[in-house]
Amino acid sequence: MGAKRQGYGVKLERGAHIRLGPHPEACEDEEQLRQLTARLRAETGRLIAADLFAGAGGLSLGLEQAGFAVVFAADHDAEAVKTHRHHFRGLTVDWDLSDPTVIDHVGKLLKSLDLDLLAGGPPCQPFSKAGRSMIRHQVRHGLRESHDRRRDLWRSYLDIIRTSRPRAVIMENVPDMALDREMFILRTMVLELEKLGYSVEERVVESKVYGIPQFRQRLILVAIRDGLRDRLNFTWPGEAVGETFVEHAIGDLPAVEPGWRAKENAAGWMPYDAGKAVTSFQKEMRKDVPEEDAGRVYDHITRQVRDDDREAFALMGTKTRYSDLPEEFRRYRHDIFDDKYKRLDAENVSRTITAHIAKDGYWYIHPYQDRTITVREAARLQTFPDWFRFAGPPTAALRQIGNAVPPMLGRILGDALITSLQTPVAVVYSSEEIASCLAGWKRKHAATAIPWLDAETRWQAISAEILLDRAAVPHVRHVWGALKRWMSPDETVAAAGDLLKIGVLIDRSDRAEALLALARVASNGEHPFSDEDLAALVSSRAITQSQADIAALAVPFGEEDTSEEPVVITKGVLRVVARLTGEKELEYKNKLTDGRLAVARTIGFGIDSRKAHTALMELAARVCRPRPECTVCPVERYCASSEKVEQLDAMLPFG
């Protein structure tokens, strides 16, 4: 830790508390809500929407701009609820959506409104392996949770969808919700929605490609009711032309002195020169500002800055790391907090605005001024227009801003959804349908190219992965006959001489020796190789994550529903899925996001998903090779590339 300098600090200062009254068409009860909804439908024909986990209303605002009427919202943040109630008509409530009674009530209420859209971003809490097993079993077998059990919030969201049956669903969340090894939550949600008849599309989107001035990745799921029957599927919006940089977004705002109650902001606003709004983004942010406020900008305030921080900020450029600062300016461990301070680059997009900005603004130092960004600047970077105010003190406003969906993203998704609801596509397949076809083929055809996909024990699969991965086909066929006899590490150790001879014969002595060494370490008379055992072997670097994943997929541990099913993109799986979906770029970029999402979409999460996954590997090795044999492929009728394989081959790498 750097040496401490004495005498620094800032006077405790509380910002003004913004109080916002309800919207003129705010509803006091559910009967008023039903009357409002009926009137809006009759008089305007607008599509009716609800927003759960709505926060301050970023997604609600975007959907309103797209043409939806958001008439119901729920959140469990008191200040965010006040903000939402101020800006939107209808009923906004502070309800706990993990409570089963509340979930049931909300579902029935929204069903009575005949919703066109249910939107929201349910937070995802971590849960145990036992919890995963229970949910996996319930979903696959059509069972319901006990009524009195408190829900994870994403489960609450699904329960409300099941009861209310909206015409469409939009869910926004952090990418981590989808990108764990098993992609458990996302695959569960897709499976449940498809069982309800929804067509489902999901993608990790990068907000900056839509003109939003920050690097903000989000998982977006869009589902359309009866889409599988009516051939309706969400079509993703096209990207914007060019990016919006920090300067484009906030460059017109006046300079400010730090302090929640700076003298220049004593009236709650600062003078604004409308002539400085030169970019299209800045003009959009000023659009609809009331005429009497045309020369004002509200909430353009920031926290006070310590003198030593001000000196540190002055030394920083956009590339400066916290660890680059002189030692006397480092109050935190620079080996842990290497990016504790970050000056935003005026000529680039901002880093992600998160709720942490409410605690300190060190990640968001103004591009030119030696201070952290203001409430209004943060709101601009999240695409909230200047007329949008936030209830509570400045820290509450910053928290609401950091937690919000950018309104611009909401509008773009809303526009695309309205178009998709009116535009049938050629054909829509469910994940379960494709998975069933793949699994049926796998049950009829023994694995010959990768025979350890039919292993009896996980040790057999691990042994083959170590010794035979990418081996010549004749070697695989002959050596597997020996390997499969050694069902445990003990049996492999007992056959050490034969194993080493095989290694010499196939020119893989180093692999044979590595396998024998692992067998000796694992040889203890007990060989369960549970999911936890595999994780421990990976953690100790005894095996790779890929080897553990193949073993877990090939051989379930215990009951099928209790064993993990990691999503694997190796062994040619991405090549097959790229051809099947027609998304040829999957093999080149974003393999761990777009690639894994596409694989998960193909295999689903039902009773056939494990077999379907191993079928993709075997198909890649036997049928869907660089020069594919489409006529014998079990999923040819689903394949977007079956009639243009020659063109696709010219674009995709061999292997």
Brief summary of the model shown:
It is built from 26 helices and 9 strands. It has 655 residues and is α/β, with parallel strands linked by helices. The longest helix has 15 residues, at 30-44.
In words, what does this structure look like?
The chain is an alpha/beta fold and 655 residues long. It has 4 domains: 30-243 and 410-421, Rossmann fold (3-Layer(aba) Sandwich), CATH 3.40.50.150; 248-391, DNA Methylase, Chain A, domain 2 (Alpha-Beta Complex); 431-450 and 571-655, Helix-hairpin-Helix base-excision DNA repair enzymes (C-terminal) (Endonuclease Iii, domain 2), CATH 1.10.1670.10; 456-561, Endonuclease III, domain 1 (Orthogonal Bundle), CATH 1.10.340. Mean pLDDT is 90; it is low at 1-7 and 645-655. It has 26 helices and 9 strands. 41% of the residues lie in helices and 8% in strands. Strands 3-2-1-4-5-7-6 form a 7-stranded mixed β-sheet, with helices on both faces. Helix 3 links the parallel strand 2 and strand 3.
